[in-house]
Fold these 4 entries.
Entry 1:
Amino acid sequence: MSVFRLGPDPIFPPPHLAEPEGLLAIGGDLAPDRLIAAYRAGIFPWFEPGGPILWWSPDPRLVLFPDELKVSGRLARTIRSGRFEIRFDSAFDDVVRACAEVPRDHEDGTWITPEMREAYGRLHRLGLARSAEAWRDGRLVGGVYGVAAGRCFCGESMFHFETDASKVALVALVERLAAEGFEMLDCQIRSEHMIRLGAREIPRDEYLSRLDRGCRDASARPGARRGSPARAAR
């Protein structure tokens, strides 16, 4: 197989033509129409700063179905304690910035470049990119963001400044997504952290079938309800 070079139009090759590690295409841009086309086709961008834009569609795909979410007893106690206030879409740009800047174990630098931050900010203003945030004493201490595609929410990244803050935000996000009719949270590639929370790998073909079915359903594109605070409760 070979990696495809994208042209000026927001058109992608079929995901099943990706390299074994998931790399499908190179080039293009991060304009909203291209990003929307990518996510609706089961493809996402992931590349190094200063390098060309790379587009991926891995097989298998890690997903979390809302009814399979696993919350440990300790995390459940943290949620019930009310330590964190949960808000949705009230500080999207700050969440993305923190995801880019907070150091991570076993990682040098970040793939969330300024160009990526601007691109997802544009999607957010279109109501397609959303965030869940954990606040404490008026300070943003954790969060997660991603992109809605039909009945699938494509998780991009998460961060925390305080223990369990990102997990509490994620639990609140999954519960909100379930209430809005989403069927799965796309976690993209294998992550032991997400597996402990209930995510599991499924074949790419199954993922694409579920994604396509949700995207074809016109009622499967709920709008973002921005800035509405809510306590995470379980």
Entry 2:
Amino acid sequence: MVSFDEQKLLAASERIYGRRGEIEAMADDACSHGISNILFSSSGGSQAMLDPFAYLIRAYSGLPVRSVLSAELVLTGCSMLDSKTLAIMSSKSGDTPETVAAARWLKERGCCIFSIVGKPESPLEELSDYCFVYGEGRPQELVAYIFLGRILQKLGSFDRYDAFADELSSLGPALNSVRRQFDDRAIEYCRLYHAEPYHIWVASGDLWPVCYAYAMCVLEESQWIRTKSVSSPEFFHGTFELLESGVPLTLLVGEGPCRPLDERVKRFAQTYTDKLTVIDAATFELPGISDEFRPLLGPVIMNAALQRISKNMEHVTGHPLDYRRYYRKVEY
């Protein structure tokens, strides 16, 4: 397997899980001050990483939750904000200009901020009431699962949190298993489709942010592959008119309540294109993870599989994943 350091990935996951108590303590303290609603606000892939957790909150509680991109937040505002708003933010660098500006804007309005940051001593960390610096830890979602799961438990909405969090100790090995299970398919996918001029990517529910981010931040930004991402329910209100023989469509299928929407797209695509790829979260074995909690982990399961497309695509195209023409290179 190209670019696959199993032990490094395991250590990264263990590095975060080993600080479970620290994350839970921050959640407990946030709850002690009261939480009236939750706002997710960041930029790009960091926002997409957070967005699936809005589905988690809605599934387990009636707590109001909203997602607003940071660049929009400072211009449009958010009517639900008050002194007990908990804002969840993320930035790999900790200095993303739009995210930092939104954090400053939120602090001026008395909101509490919990941030997930890759580098220590960043502007975002300085503006946050609570900050978890993951450094070389992965996946970042593990931080959010623990922090938000604990909050839901403290609010009386997730009485199975302890069992769920205990199983998260197996997340690292489980995700490595997913990577191994999918690698052969990823190699073939890259061989067949790396030079295609146009791709359609489709998903729904908590996998829609994964689909959107992968199309934009990996295929477009990192590989310069023209890609249209569309949600499963919206596919039939526009994009499906562009599907025909020879057009590759990649469908991400989840295990949650939106699965019938994905299956509808699958049935249609099987008829009208000969280049359909279905990646179904339900097909992966997850050692150490029970059936009860599998549906909650769809985003990290799918991201682990897609990582193998990324690594193999880089290998096939010769285009490094970290090469950019414009991002942080020119004024924009």
Entry 3:
Amino acid sequence: MAGADPNDANTTDGTAGWPYGRLDANTRVPLYHQIFLILRNRIYGGDLIAGCLVPGEQDLAAEFRVSRITAKRALNELADAGLVVRERGRGTRVIKRPPAPAVTSSIEGWLENISLMGISTTARVLAFGYVAASEDIAHALDIEPGTEVQHAVRVRSLDGEPMSYLVTYVPAEIGSQFDRDDLDAQPLLHLLEMAGVDVASARQTISATVADPEVASALSMPAGGPLIEVRRVVCDGSERPVEYLRVLYRPDVYRFEMSMRRVREQEGMRWATLKSSPVPAGDG
């Protein structure tokens, strides 16, 4: 493997202590970069928050069954990306929080598109349960850190081919009204409405990222491959957050379309957004 250290184990599927701790020894992505991607996703996913200590070289070497040299390169890459600071004798500490959602948009049309998606796609639940909200999850849902929330991980497929990896958090009092089997059968927005939630608006960001080994395995793609990342906070009619979603899309089977119109205003001409919707690639 390119970039692999000769002291690293051939089988690198260590998962002790953290979720999503599996490396792919068959990809051309170096092991240290795979570890970097996993740690970066832990930071942006809220598992490692600002001020939190990142596992050290020895802990990472044990977790991923790699050499300390490989673990050190991963931590150095994390520091080079501006996500952590490394201090001799004090360890490696997270210094950057994931950016808050910056776009506010109407939810109009989303439920209808998801209804059509639910007909043409299938979802499989990989993980389901209740956890204490981390600082970032609590901030997104406007609740106190440590409050119980429903946590689910799903993969949605189109014609049997994985297209998206979804991680959702819902306040426990809402999530308790449906279970794992319900999530296997219906889109979450449908379940929220069936639970009496008045889904009214959403704030979301759309950006790009790359697949860590766990996500890559779930989406049947190479580790390090490109993904479309959407982070969305869904609110009810009173602006209460009812869902926090992070979804990773394979760009070869999924895209976003947006209709725009040139309009004249007092300040001059500008582009106005008419409608945006998610569309599986190839559906026109």
Entry 4:
Amino acid sequence: MDMEARVHSEHPEALRLWLRLLTCTQLVEKEVRSRLREQFDTTLPRFDLMAQLERAPDGLKMNELSRRMMVTGGNVTGITDQLVAEGLVERMDVEGDRRAYRVRLTARGRRQFAEMAQEHEQWIVDAFSGLAERDIATLHRLLGKVKAHAQQGQAESV
């Protein structure tokens, strides 16, 4: 049973929409996880870490990776250790800070990530293929309003 199945018609429409969004996200993510495992023998967290490094060619400090991925440093360290052992990322010393190091994709890691990212993009396009282009644009615009409102609420509470 998905999360959406828990609500009834007497619940507020906003709650029903929230649960539909969660359900859709979970369904798409489950498919992406499955395809990453089947086609590339990797996991979504590994893909996500490589995606962050792909956006930062000079590499990132571990604490920055952790912040960007919104996970603990221990999680990032474990994934990084695996990727270093496979020759997909490398660690570099940080000048002036003997306790820190940067992590960046190796040439092999960049090639492998590019292949995965191309497939990933198509999986996401396929996930929304049941919608017309106009529907996708409308949904994107409307979710942008939700995002802006949520960000405004967070800024006001700080």
